[in-house]
Amino acid sequence: MYDDFKTLIAAQLSELSGASAEIITPAIDLPKATTFGDLAVAVPRLRLKGNPVQLAQSLAEQFKTDDSVTGVVATGPYLNFRINRTAFTQKVLKAVHSAGEKYGWTNEGAGKRVIVEFSSPNIAKPFHAGHLRSTIIGNFIYKLHKANGWDAISMNYLGDWGKQYGLLAIGFNRFGSEEKLVADPITHLYEVYVAINAAADKDPTIHDEARAYFKKMEDGDEGALALWQRFRDLSIAKYKQTYARLGIHFDVYSGESQVGEGMARAMQMLEDGGLLTQDKGAKVLDLEKYKLEKAVVQKSDGTTLYLTRDIGAAIERYEKYNFDKIIYVVSSQQDLHLKQLFKTIELLGLPYADRFQHINYGLVKGMSTRKGTVVFLDDMLMESKDNMHSVMRENDAKYKQVADPDHVADVLGMTAIAVQDMSAKRIKDYTFEWSRILNFEGDTGPYLQYAHARLCSLERNCGPVNLEADVSLLVEESAREIVTLVSRYPDTLATAMQTLEPCTVVQYMLKLSHAVSAAWETMIVRDQPKELADARLLMYSSARIVIGNALSLLGMEPVQRM
User: At what angle do helices 52-62 and 3-17 cross, to 10 degrees?
Assistant: First the structure.
């Protein structure tokens, strides 16, 4: 958005200083505050000989302003430039309305493919807060890559294999109910899993039975596999309902059980590479010299472990999808496992070893309802939705205007949970607080949705938007702030693409919403002279588009009434 102005500034500074435009252009930044200017240059970055403060003063005195770059002032070692706000505002607001839902998108990833693996719950267990973090962070990363032109594939790699499924099968034979299984498969299987674990604490031989049962699964026993397949199919059907409610789609449902001959090939490659040692009959990968401990890849009874299957999966995925990058969105508790996986792929000499990336996140603490019981995702969503519904009903007049209040309450509840999750850097642990979820004020999800809905209401009542409005009438400082923030949305997405931090977009959206709120009482549209009303409505409409785009990118449906 600032490129034309940066080019003009760089050209003249190059003439005055002798520094090349290639050095100057990247040094022209957007200041955190626009008190001194719209663009700034830190003179030390120009690599000129002399005192930076004196050089800044000299360059400011020599710089010739014009209709595009209207002012320059030196502040210490910085050069601060003012640009033609009318031309800039016109350019920004037209760009927003021209691109619409794709404002801020690029084609930088064109021709490149990325797999984003996220969510990945264990079948037969209810969705909990940890899976929610992986799900919403992963969905953001997937959508962000698509917005940057990548061919992005969303993959759900289910935890659907291992001794615990032998344990579950034995538990179902003892405690299971066919009727309860059909009615609510995941809840019932979880009850069975808890019951059999409690029984195994008293009778350790149950674990031996579970290992034997899983060995039958690995050996292809039809009866053992049939029960496991039923558990898997019922679990996926239930998960798909939850994902649909969250507005999340997976291009591929995979799982540990789906890894085929890639696993055998991985074992053979490890053997051929001399990377394995024997330890009491088990095959071990010794990564201690890389400070990554030892990793068992095959137990003494011949059964495989997570690492073996993940290596095999990585080989098969590259051969099938030929990806340029693969991102694993997994909690920080798995840091060691992912480091072991990536190091093993490197040691195997695979040519795509540098294409793997782990995006981690911290833990959620304090997850309980007001009744004190552990919260699973469905419980969280229902409680949040019910509370949003109660708040909405407090304004009867507005409530009656909402076409589908039940759906809007659901969206608001999910937005509240997601924004609380994504407000800080993902590696940070955070404490789940119902008080923040139920609050429409402050830096919360409902506040962002309210900002969007209020702007939608303004357009309904004062529209249509005039794209040819005279933006020179937007002289207030609050208008400058809104337009500047709107112009920075593409840069915000570029930063998010570098860090893959959802909080970058959340914090940006909060700033823009606060700026709109600050302007709301003084920059009125209704009952103003037409030219002024048109200019203000165009500005507010642009802010509405950007807030809606940001909400969508974060995986939330922007509401129009609430």
Answer: 110
In angstroms, the CA 470 to CA 6 distance is 25
- 128 is an active site residue: yes
* Residue at token pair 């026993």: 221
Rounded distance between C-alpha atoms, residue 523 and residue 538, angstroms:
12
Burial of 175 (0-12, 13-18, 19+ CB in 10 A): middle
The DSSP code sequence of 50-61 is S-HHHHHHHHHH
For residue 204, report the phi and psi dihedrals to the nearest 5 degrees: -60, -20
233, 186 Cβ separation under 8 angstroms: no
Mean pLDDT of 366-375: 54
Helix (H, G, I), strand (E, B) or coil at 375: coil
The catalytically annotated residue of 94, 97, 112, 128 is 128
Query: Once rounded to an integer, what is the mean pLDDT over residues 92-102?
Result: 98
DSSP readout, 399-419? Answer: HHH-S-HHHHHHHHHHHHHHH
Interhelix angle 502-520/405-422, rounded to 10 degrees, is 120
478's enclosing H/E stretch is helix 477-487
Query: With pLDDT > 70 as the criterion, what percentage of the chain qualifies?
Result: 97
Asked if residues 58 and 15 have their Cβ atoms less than 8 Å apart, the reply is: no
Cis amide bond preceding 464, omega within 30: yes
- What is the number of alpha carbons within 13 Å of residue 522 lying toward its C-beta? 10
Residue 369 has a pLDDT of: 47
- The Cβ of residue 459 has, within 10 Å, a number of other Cβ atoms equal to 16
Residue 207 designated active-site: no
Task: Extract the runs of DSSP E, i.e. beta strands, from 159-292.
Answer: 252-255, 276-279, 282-286
383, 376 contact by CB (below 8 A): no
pLDDT tens readout for residues 522-551: 999 999 999 999 999 999 999 999 999 999
What's the start-to-end Cα distance of the chain, in Å? 33
The answer to whether the CB of 69 falls within 8 A of the CB of 5 is: yes
pTM of the model: 0.91
Specify whether the CB–CB gap between 323 and 154 falls below 8 A.
Answer: no
Of 131, 145, 283, 325, which is the active-site residue?
131
Sign (positive/negative) of CA torsion 138, 140, 142, 148? negative
* 523: helix, strand or coil: coil
Catalytic member of 6, 91, 125, 145:
125
